[in-house]
Design a protein that fits this description.
341 residues; alpha/beta; four-stranded parallel sheet; 8 strands; 48% helix; globular
Length: 341
């Protein structure tokens, strides 16, 4: 083998640091086939549906994956980024990765990439890409402000699965939940205040809607609900609002078991029937807008509110890749990279 061939085939020298942003996931296509592939992976995760016994598998494969994909595909089409032929979650997460890379570009030995827990790009591909660029230390950033076994922990699980297949493993760190970080609370408060000054009305109630989970998961020790409450309490203090002016609800329940309450859709209906005419809704458990925010809240729950007698509804976007949102991610990443940069 010649020296030229030897050099060209050699791997990139190690010693670089990788940062991998990870969000929940998205189907590759907004059709029944794309949703079927995505939902099968998602609903087959024992962190999401803990009882993966024979009965669940029969329900999943015999009913859910036959019926739900076509229905959910219609919802995705309402919010789909047709220009890039992808979901907004994928567009925004890519934007967060690109902007983070630019924000920490002065650390020229740090590489930034992004992945999805379910769907593509996968965590496996994210690790492969960073390691191919010479990263022997990787900081994983689960983009969930509040910890839940069904979100944060399943990222840990997947990373462990990826590492299990490696003989030469990188050193790995994880960014912890940031549900009460001052930078995060300030960014949320600033986004609310910026949205409210643009409205032609003053909301009587602001609703903070978080993704729900089965009550039994919390009863078994999941800290998610406690961290959601802490986020809202910190936000009330920051905005000088009481528990009637800023309320907490939970959305996106699935199946027949009791989920965390109060439910967002039932609250929309109740508020309107009690005479509330003007509300604003934010989703502080999501770092990027997605189906659950853009369709379920901004469209479906807005319609529930108006149908029950409400008049004016405003959806406050997630932090996304806004300046405020990126400042939160940048601060967290730089703090957790201490000793590596």
């Amino acid at each position: 083998m010649s020296s030229v061939e030897s050099v060209s085939s050699a791997p990139m020298p190690a010693g670089r640091v990788g940062v991998l942003l990870v969000n929940l996931g998205t189907p590759d296509t907004a059709d029944a086939r794309g949703l079927r592939v995505y939902l099968k992976e998602f609903l087959s995760d024992p962190r999401v549906i803990e009882n993966q016994g024979l009965f669940w598998k029969l329900v999943l494969n015999g009913i859910i994956l036959r019926v739900r994909p076509a229905r959910k595909a219609k919802d995705y089409l309402k919010i789909w980024n047709n220009e890039l032929n992808e979901s907004p979650l994928k567009t925004i997460t890519r934007g967060q990765s690109d902007k983070l890379a630019a924000a920490i570009a002065d650390h020229d030995h740090v590489e930034v990439d992004w992945a999805m827990r379910y769907g593509n790009p996968s965590i496996q591909s994210g690790f492969d890409a960073l390691m191919a660029r010479g990263c022997d230390r990787i900081l994983v950033v689960p983009l969930y402000p509040q910890y839940a076994a069904a979100t944060t922990a399943t990222v840990f699980d997947k990373v462990a699965e990826v590492l299990l297949a490696m003989r030469a493993q990188p050193t790995v760190r994880f960014v912890p939940p940031y549900y009460d970080e001052p930078a995060y609370i300030d960014a949320l408060a600033n986004s609310i205040e910026a949205q409210l000054v643009t409205l032609p009305f003053k909301p009587e109630v602001i609703v903070a809607s978080f993704h729900g989970m089965p009550q039994k998961y919390v009863d078994k020790g999941d800290p998610y609900q406690t961290q959601c409450v802490a986020t809202v309490e910190a936000l009330r203090n920051r905005l000088n609002l009481d528990d009637k002016e800023l309320i907490l609800t939970f959305q996106s329940r699935f199946g027949y078991d009791p989920w965390l309450q109060p439910y967002t859709d039932k609250t929309m209906e109740r508020l309107a029937k009690e005479g509330v005419k003007r509300i604003a809704v934010l989703t502080p458990g999501f770092s990027a807008d997605c189906l659950e925010t853009l369709e379920e809240i901004a469209q479906e729950n807005a319609e529930i509110f108006r149908h029950a007698g409400g008049e004016q509804f405003s959806f406050i976007p997630c932090l996304n890749d806004s300046d405020g949102g990126m400042d939160v991610i940048r601060q967290l990443v730089l703090r957790e990279l201490q000793g590596w940069i």
